[in-house]
Amino acid sequence: MPCQLKEQSLLQTRAWINSNWIGPGSGQEFSVINPATGKELAQVTDCGRQETHEAVVSAHNALQKWKVLTGKERGSLLRHWYELIMAHQDDLARLMTLEQGKVLAEARGEIAYAASFIEWFSEEAKRIYGDIIPQTRPDHRSLVIKQPIGVVAAITPWNFPAAMITRKAGAALAAGCTIVIKPSEETPLSALALAELSHRAGIPAGVINIVPGLDAQAIGQELCDNPLVKKLTFTGSTAVGKHLLKQSAATVKKVSLELGGNAPIIIFDDADLDKAVAGALACKYRNSGQTCICANRILVQSGIYPAFLQRFRAAVEKLETGDGLDMKTTSGPLINQKAISKVHSLVEDAVQQGASIVTGGNEASFHGCYQPTILTDVNSSMRIAREEIFGPVAPVIQFDSEEDAINLANNTEFGLASYFYTSDLARTWRVSEAIEYGMVGVNETAITSEVIPFGGVKESGIGREGSKYGIDDYLELKYICMGDIR
């Protein structure tokens, strides 16, 4: 068995519908591959439209009993789920590294991060407050209550296969909704392990359903077309998000989208250079660059450009590619060969247009890895400056003035995350307000947690996840007018 876990029962390979493990009815399964070895980890049930329909019906049937529980009752069950996730952190992290590739320390960090959303929303379940509106007529009273929107469909990505589920499911369940989750076909094992732990926590049948499958189009079509689904939440590419938004229009679903990014990190000449180098390194190469908020462009002011580049290169060349289970590895494999080819095509395109390779620039010797890479002489017309790289490649771009930096940062249709380093307090306010992003890190690149509203502007998405604002997308406001009060 390639997935050796302390508790082997966490390795589940069948769909999870109505608290039952559903095997392939027609014998259809698909392979989950370890990107570090290219070898098969498991065969997983390949769901299609029919299984997805059954999962939606299951969630709909469970909704009435789930939504009438008190917030405290739902919160207690979520709290138990959180505790089980943390109790099995090591196994969940190992499973994630095996199917996704990220280094084990990062995988452990993601499990804790994922669990934090369940803990947070277990507490928020008790805080879904309404309003009393001052009356406009003496014999009337006006009030607003919040109610769960209903069945939620969640489509989640492979780069954070646990956290992107819990950030959605935690809010949905706390609000009183039930959920159908379509995890990435690259990383279904993490999702199914979470389902197993939710069952042990006592979350009732049908409240959580997992439908893994290769036919994303058929599954997505069912989730968008089915009128029982009242909300769709998606994390992934902007192109797919736009398609899902169009499909959801027919049934006028509530939609929240966390889409692509093109994050700049701006290093001003008054920055603490050591901290800026460390922040850029962590932000760019975390998860081998496969995050939507990693630094896609590093903008460095001309006065410190040579010094930054020298220190940054020295730091990047210390990164070790390899299997994420190896404790020496600091840069694991990309998710698959297609991802490697895409990253390399961006590098080749940039070089053909005049960019220079400072270090890296090719596939690494270890299977599935790409060399941590730095490019200079990059301009905004190159694909690598316009497209989301999703790999360990850092384009470093020189700028002269604050105005130039803001213009470069904003010269994109995306607006998810951004970062800058400066010691000037006035500049902190000016730049924070001028750059067009949903999230801004000032002298810091580790900006995410369960308490902050995660999300972007422009073509990076709709809505916010996490924080006290994250539950709002799973609730409907109902206005109640009471008359004849004397």
From TrEMBL:
Gene3D superfamilies: Aldehyde Dehydrogenase, Chain A, domain 1, Aldehyde Dehydrogenase, Chain A, domain 2. This is NAD-dependent succinate-semialdehyde dehydrogenase. Pfam families: Aldedh. Belongs to the aldehyde dehydrogenase family. The active site is at E258. Keywords: Oxidoreductase. It comes from the Bacteria. InterPro entries: Ald_DH/histidinol_DH, Ald_DH_C, Ald_DH_CS_CYS, Ald_DH_CS_GLU, Ald_DH_N, Aldehyde_DH_dom, Aldehyde_DH_Superfamily, Succ_semiAld_DH. Residues 21-480 form the Aldehyde dehydrogenase domain.
